[in-house]
Design goal:
219 residues; alpha+beta; four-stranded mixed sheet; 53% helix; 10% strand; globular
Length: 219
């Protein structure tokens, strides 16, 4: 097989299930190496996080109820710790600022550096309890990862990063994605959504790689 299997991986950086799935993303890349290319993209789930939580958790404890839900969700996963103050005193208003910075980094230095920065942002939020909706916090994380904010700022200012982010959001709607995380394989014919186990992900990848050259759509 000359070209890698492309997987479009859509997530929202504030989504706890995507935080849990980070270990699976890492394992998938480690197992299949250059035979798989995971293309990180974003879906709008927590663009208005406070509004979403107020609507969906109004009769379940509001922000405190959502915080308890997040803490409970990660209990089985040692690789996905959550800070005690997340969604209690640390309540990011939107995932869009972090997504926009990550698209700027992608345009500036490429997908690999943006992926590393994305992991650092998730660690800052979930593990360390830092509000990654704040521009100053995002730029601090960029610096911690060896980046230079003044190189990123022009792409934020002139709209290029926003345009790339809107492309992700629109494409996710075209695929009718239900949320985060979502895995799109086989040119859009296979979509896996939510807390998908690693064995399921790996089995789908193995099947697609095995039959990539001798199977085609019947339609």
């Amino acid at each position: 097989m000359n070209s890698p299997l492309h997987i479009d991986y859509y997530s929202d950086i504030l989504c706890v299930w995507a935080w849990i799935a980070q270990r699976r993303v890492d394992e998938l890349q480690a197992q299949w190496g250059q035979r798989v290319e995971i293309r990180h993209r974003f879906v709008d789930v927590f663009g208005d996080s406070h509004g979403r939580i107020e609507r969906q958790w109004a009769d379940r404890g509001g922000m405190d109820g959502f915080a308890a839900h997040v803490s409970h969700a990660v209990e089985p996963y040692e690789s996905a710790p959550v800070h005690a103050e997340l969604w209690r005193t640390v309540c990011p208003v939107s995932s869009a600022p972090a997504h926009r910075v990550l698209k700027a980094v992608t345009l500036l230095t490429g997908a690999e550096s943006a992926e590393r920065l994305g992991v650092a942002m998730r660690e800052a939020l979930f593990r360390d309890g830092r509000d990654i909706a704040q521009h100053t916090e995002l730029m601090a994380i960029v610096c911690e990862q060896g980046g230079e904010p003044h190189h990123i700022q022009p792409l934020l200012d002139d709209g290029r990063a926003m345009a790339a982010l809107m492309d992700d959001y629109q494409t996710s709607k075209q695929h009718n994605l239900q949320g985060s995380p979502s895995w799109i394989m086989n040119d859009g014919r296979q979509i896996l959504y939510g807390n998908v186990g690693y064995r399921v992900l790996s089995a789908n990848v193995e099947e697609l790689l095995r039959h990539a050259q001798d199977e085609a759509s019947w339609c």
